[in-house]
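Memo to structure team: turn this sequence into structure tokens by end of day. - J.P.
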Amino acid sequence: MEVTLSDTIGLPQGTLLSIRVGSTRRQAVVDSKFKLVFPKGCKHGEDVKVDALQQIGSNMMKYNESVGRYDLDLDDFGSKVSLHMREVIQPATEQEVSAAPEAAKVDDSSVSHRHRVAVYARKYLDEHKLLTWAHKLFQDLIHDQPADPWGYIDKRSAEARGEAELAAKAEAERKLAQADMEDIRQRTATQLQQAAEDGSLENALSHSQEAPELPPMSKELEEITDSQEVAHMKTEEEDLDNLRLKTQAALFRAAEDGSLQEVLGSKASQPAAAATAKDVDVLRLHAAQMLLSAAEDGSLEKALIDASKDTKDVDLLRQEAAATLLRAAEDGTLESVLSKNQAPKDDLESLRQ
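Reply from structure team:
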């Protein structure tokens, strides 16, 4: 519908004429010949509201990019208004510029329609990333200020188109791989379900849980294993017997070359021939003290090491020698040796035998 101003009578200069048809309002100053267009038609019998608005105040301000809020005094009677102003990325269309502000109460269907249109438009721009690209393009265009702005825009458009094609190709490959994976999952699930129904899955699981049986050991291998264990035990017994024989031989060699006699004789300050049967216990105690002294000053250890020539078995030889000497002290052999340490050599030979 179209409304045109033909004439006015009695309206002050600067009066604003506002006309509302349905939910749409249009307005213009009556001083000029205007024509108002309403997108929706007016039905027969429908109300059309006409308001004559007069200016009660005005003010002038300068726009500043760093300021968002403006407080203005409209007249001398305390009328004030606060405005928020900001630049928008998407420029207003010609229809939006020419359209007058609508009334506070509008039709709900019209509001919902505009909201849906805005949502669809924003969804389209976001889906293709056009809004951010255009914003960045104009920023770079103002900063670079090329001599050929259209060529600059064409170059940037070609670059954006190439990036979009690569992104679309990558997305297609991802969807294809996802579809293949989903197909594999479905086939695997179908095969597992069939195996569960025909019992093959249960049979496979039962076999996998059974412990594998080892083959029986052959008779020859069993005999070899038994013989190795017996040989190991015999080797340990032979090593112990050899160690004992080595200790005994070392003591005999020490007795033959006189080293044992020298150690025992150097500690005995009085001749052993003067001992009587009543001094046997004292003699044994004295012998034990001499052995302890020899062990402390290292002379006994030196004699045993020189005789055996085996430094690895020093501690064991020392223990065996101590045990042998103690047994000799108990059965009287050590006493006989000490009493006859000054006797002829043939008596010592009889003691060795």
